[in-house]
Design a protein that fits this description.
By secondary structure, the protein is of the alpha/beta class. The protein contains twelve helices and twelve strands.
Length: 312
């Protein structure tokens, strides 16, 4: 094995993708125990990069627009001036391919799919693999034989302010604002919240301000639900997940944290996503998919939630 001194790992976003990269992060650190490893990521995930403990440094990539030439120059100066002798590109975008082109010959070792890189992932079917298998294959091509599942044992947060007493469930009715077809209707979440509350399980509804309409609709349809909109950090989501009876949510980032933290999870998919490639992974996850999520009956979701919760 080459004696790599300085390593760059590139992973930008989104949340679910970042969570699924935690296994590769750990594998890279294990394979290079004495190297100085830097993570290049975007601002929302810098704290996660620091918190996991597998990096010596975390740099924020501003992802400059084409006309922001000063930012481009600073970014280029950092990438080519930091003395990296190996790069793991876990983002695989046109932008990171440009970063590869920043380097003059001889270029550092590069793991990814950038044309001309030293350690390419050559599988022609790579895009139909689940993200975890695709990343494991990429690292194997770079000499890292074992890639573990995402480990969130280090991720925690204080949940005492949420007034938890007794059993509760997590509902995640939001998702990317520009992908409404990936969201189960709030009225259906409301029906699930009502059934959970009738069974003595308090529904906690989580999400961001961008998902306010969906979250408020659920909370208003079932007054016993607890609205945690905008109140949960990544660490608090993980901690809630460790103690929740079950979680039900759309194809959205927090469900990856919840599933990886070990919570019994029901993940809802429409035609807009391919579960075989992107579904959350964890010890107790079930996926339900419909062409249109509007056609998914709350009774079917409740039945799946009850079944998966019994297995944990």
């Amino acid at each position: 094995m080459a004696d790599h001194k300085r390593i760059l790992v590139i992973k930008h976003s989104a949340l679910g993708d970042f969570v699924m990269a935690l296994g590769p992060f750990r594998a890279i650190r294990t394979h290079h125990p004495d190297a100085h490893i830097t993570l290049l990521t975007t601002a929302p995930y810098a704290d996660l990069g620091h918190g996991c403990g597998w990096f010596d440094a975390v740099e924020v990539d501003p992802k400059p627009h084409i006309l922001q030439w000063r930012s481009w120059l600073r970014l280029r100066r950092f990438i080519i001036g930091s003395g990296f002798d190996r790069v793991y590109d876990l983002q695989h975008s046109n932008r990171t391919h440009m970063y590869f082109r920043f380097f003059r010959q001889p270029k550092p070792e590069w793991s990814g799919i950038a044309p001309g890189c030293s350690h390419p992932h050559r599988n022609p079917n790579r895009n139909v693999l689940h993200t975890l298998e695709r990343q494991a294959e990429q690292l194997a091509a770079a000499g890292i034989a074992q890639t573990p599942a995402p480990d969130l044992d280090w991720l925690t947060g204080n949940t005492t302010t949420f007034g938890i007493a007794g059993r509760f469930a997590l509902l995640v009715p939001g998702g990317a604002p520009h992908r409404p077809d990936k969201r189960w209707p709030p009225a259906h979440y409301g029906a699930v919240a009502r059934a959970l509350a009738d069974a003595g399980i308090v529904p906690f509804v989580i999400g961001t301000q961008a998902e306010a309409a969906e979250i408020r609709a659920v909370a208003e349809s079932e007054p016993r639900a607890v609205d945690l909109m905008g109140q949960t950090s990544f660490g608090q989501i993980a901690e809630l997940a460790r103690h929740a009876s079950v979680a039900i949510g759309n194809d959205t980032g927090p469900m990856h944290i919840i599933a990886a933290a070990g919570c019994a999870s029901v993940s809802l998919f429409s035609h807009a996503s391919v579960p075989a490639q992107t579904q959350p992974r964890g010890p107790a996850v079930v996926v339900i998919q419909r062409e249109s999520l509007a056609d998914l009956d709350p009774a079917a979701v409740l039945e799946a939630a009850q079944a998966i919760a019994k297995k944990t």
